UniProtKB/TrEMBL annotation:
Domain of life of the source: Bacteria
GO molecular function: electron transfer activity; heme binding; metal ion binding
Species lineage: Bacteria, Pseudomonadati, Pseudomonadota, Alphaproteobacteria, Hyphomicrobiales
Pfam families associated with the record: Cytochrom_C (PF00034)
Protein name: Cytochrome c domain-containing protein
Length: 148
């Protein structure tokens, strides 16, 4: 009976989009709680305050640059950047207090849901490895923006 119930629930999850949909939903909740105040609804950004996250830079995330978004979430970003033709000179504080799962979920939401990026997924294990590694400088992170 328990096996049949588990199989039925797994089937229902598959109908609603499965783990990917759940991860996107969790990421949306993390985004709403942590990111939306500055980056606004649907990642549109706020002129002079926070760059849009629905952008060509994020959409161009590839396997080579897939770590950019989670590294910015973990370490923050300061200094001049350009996004969608607008210049920004603001400071994003690090969000290292978020769990690896939350960072993976919000990364998925920003890259996949808001931007439609394909194939550059980041999971909690990858975030844990980034967290354990040497933190990149703001200059390193800004350089990652220009390397699609």
């Amino acid at each position: 009976m328990a096996i049949a119930l588990a199989a039925g629930l797994a089937g229902l999850a598959g109908l609603s989009g499965g783990a990917g949909a759940a991860r996107a939903a969790d990421g949306k909740a993390v985004y709403a709680a942590v990111c939306q105040a500055c980056h606004q609804d649907a990642g549109k950004g706020a002129a002079g305050v926070a760059p849009p996250l629905k952008s060509a830079v994020v959409k161009a995330t590839t396997a080579k640059t897939r770590d950019y978004v989670p590294l910015v979430v973990l370490n923050g970003l300061s200094g001049p950047i350009e996004s969608e033709g607008l210049s920004f000179q603001t400071v994003m504080p690090p969000q290292g207090h978020l769990s690896d799962e939350e960072i993976a979920a919000v990364t998925h939401y920003v890259t996949q849901t808001l931007n439609g990026a394909k194939g550059a997924k980041v999971d909690a294990k990858a975030v844990a490895a980034l967290r354990a590694g040497k933190a990149p400088s703001a200059a390193d992170l800004r350089a990652m923006r220009s390397r699609p």
